[in-house]
Design brief:
The protein has 384 residues and is an alpha/beta fold. It has helices at 25-39, 74-88, 105-108, 132-143, 145-149, 159-167, 214-223, 241-250, 265-273, 289-296, 309-312, 327-339, 341-355, 360-378, and strands at residues 9-13, 43-48, 57-60, 63-67, 93-98, 114-118, 154-156, 176-177, 200-204, 231-235, 257-261, 277-280, 301-304, 319-322. It folds into 2 domains: 9-181 and 359-378, Glycogen Phosphorylase B (Rossmann fold, 3-Layer(aba) Sandwich), CATH 3.40.50.2000; 200-355, Rossmann fold (3-Layer(aba) Sandwich). Helix 1 crosses helix 14 (360-378) and helix 7 crosses helix 12 (327-339).
Length: 384
C-alpha cells in the first residue's frame, strides 16, 4: 500500500527500540505504526539507546535503527542529534516517543518540524519504581513539560493521558488521540484452545516494581484455600524478577506461580488463550495494550481501576475493574470469575467485540495524516 501523502523522511527518537530487553507497550506502539508507514514509502529512521549485544545499526521491518548512548546519557545524545539533523536538513520531521524522560525536541531541537507522542507521565508513581534520587530527577524533568511542550503538536494514546497533559498546563485544549491497535489476524480465539478445568491466571508484560505484580501473587496466596489447583503464570522479563521470586518463595507458592520469562509471540498467545483471566494491577498505564490483546483472544481481564487500564477494560463487559491496591477486592473479583463460567463467557464475547474496534492500520492512517499536517504547519520557508 502506497501513501497518498508525499514520502517523508521521518526521524524517530525513543529510549528503546522493539528489540531492547526492556521494550514495552510504548516501543510496540512506535514499531507497529511506523513500520507500516515505512511500507507505504516513507523513510523511517529510529535513534535509540544501545544495550549489551546490540549492533550500532539495524534494520527492523523497514525501520533503520541507529543506537547511541546509554540509559543515563541518551536524552542528551538525542537532543544533540535532533539539532544536528535540523542544521543539515537531514529529515523532514522528528517524532519523539515520550514515555520516560522528555527530550524537549519541540523547544530545543533546532527548529525541525516535530511531533511528540505521549504514553503516560509518571507523576508520583515514579517513586513506586525507583529510588528518591532518580524519582526526583524524573519529577524535575516533568515539571518542565509545560515550558517545553506548550503549543507543540501532541498525540496521546489514551483519554487519561490527554487529560493529564491538559491538567498540567501543557496544552490548552484537546490532544490528538491515536489509540493502540491489535493484530486481529493472529490475536483471536482459537477453536479447541481454551482454559481447562484447572484455574489459570496470567500476567504478560515487563516485570517492574511499579506494575505491582506483587498484588497478583498475594491474591493467589489467598485463593489457594478454595482453589488448590490454581496456576499463575507471570510472563515477561525485567529487573523486579528477583523480588517477585522471593515473594513467591516466602508465600509458599513455588508450585503455584511460575516465571516462563520472555516468550515468542506465538507462545504468548497460546498461553493467553489457555488462561481464565489476564491480571493487571498497575497504578497507571498509558493504555493497556495487553488488555486489548487478551480481549481479542476472548480472555477476560481483571485490572486496577487506574488511568489507562480503566479505558482498555470495560467493567462488567470485557473484564472486571477493582480499586487499585485493594487486595480484598482483587481477590474477590478473581474468585467470582473463577466460580462463574457464564460470567467468563460473557466477558470473553464482549472482549472480542471490543477489540475489533482497534486496528494498527487505522492508527497508522491517523498518524500519517497528523505528520503531514505537522510538516506543512511547521516547515520553515527555506526548508527543502
Amino acid at each position: 500500500m502506497m501513501s497518498k501523502y508525499p514520502p517523508y523522511d521521518i526521524r524517530l527518537i525513543d529510549y528503546r527500540d522493539i528489540t531492547h530487553p526492556e521494550a514495552g507497550g510504548a516501543e510496540r506502539y512506535l514499531h507497529e505504526i511506523f513500520s507500516r508507514l515505512a511500507r507505504r514509502g516513507h523513510r523511517v529512521r529510529l535513534l535509540a539507546c544501545t544495550y549489551p549485544g546490540a549492533a550500532q545499526n539495524d534494520e527492523l521491518d523497514g525501520i533503520h535503527v541507529e543506537r547511541h548512548g546509554g540509559r543515563a546519557s541518551f536524552n542528551f545524545v538525542a537532543l544533540a542529534a535532533c539539532r544536528r539533523w535540523s542544521r543539515s536538513g537531514d529529515g523532514d520531521v522528528a517524532v519523539e516517543n515520550l514515555c520516560k524522560i522528555p527530550f524537549f525536541t519541540h523547544r530545543l531541537g533546532g527548529g525541525m518540524p516535530s511531533l511528540t507522542i505521549v504514553h503516560h507521565l509518571f507523576g508520583k508513581t515514579v517513586f513506586q519504581e525507583t529510588n528518591v534520587v532518580a524519582g526526583t530527577y524524573v519529577r524535575a524533568y516533568e515539571a518542565l513539560l509545560p515550558m517545553g511542550y506548550r503549543g507543540a503538536p501532541l498525540v496521546a494514546v489514551s483519554k487519561s493521558t490527554s487529560a493529564d497533559l491538559i491538567s498540567r498546563g501543557i496544552c490548552p485544549g484537546p490532544v490528538t488521540l491515536i489509540h493502540n491497535g491489535v493484530g486481529t489476524d493472529h490475536l483471536c480465539p482459537k477453536p479447541g484452545v481454551e482454559p481447562g478445568a484447572q484455574p489459570r491466571l496470567i500476567y504478560l508484560g515487563r516485570l517492574k516494581r511499579y506494575k505491582r505484580i506483587d498484588l497478583l501473587i498475594r491474591a493467589a496466596a489467598r485463593l489457594r484455600a478454595d482453589w488448590p489447583g490454581l496456576k499463575v503464570e507471570i510472563v515477561g522479563r525485567g529487573d523486579h524478577l528477583p523480588a517477585l521470586r522471593q515473594l513467591v518463595e516466602e508465600s509458599g507458592l513455588c508450585d503455584c506461580v511460575s516465571f516462563p520469562g520472555f516468550v515468542s509471540e506465538e507462545e504468548k498467545i497460546d498461553r493467553l488463550r489457555r488462561a481464565h483471566a489476564l491480571v493487571y494491577t498497575s497504578p497507571k498505564e498509558g493504555w493497556g495494550i495487553g488488555a486489548i490483546e487478551a480481549s481479542a483472544c476472548g480472555v477476560p481481564v481483571v485490572a486496577s481501576d487506574s488511568p489507562g487500564l480503566s479505558e482498555a477494560v470495560l467493567h462488567e463487559e470485557t473484564g472486571l475493574l477493582v480499586p487499585h491496591g485493594d487486595l480484598d477486592a482483587l481477590t474477590a473479583a478473581l474468585d467470582r470469575l473463577l466460580r462463574d463460567p457464564a460470567l467468563g463467557e460473557r466477558l470473553a464475547k464482549g472482549g472480542v467485540e471490543w477489540a475489533s474496534h482497534f486496528s494498527w492500520d487505522t492508527a497508522a492512517d491517523r498518524m500519517e495524516r497528523m505528520l503531514d499536517e505537522v510538516v506543512h504547519a511547521q516547515r520553515r520557508p527555506n526548508a527543502k
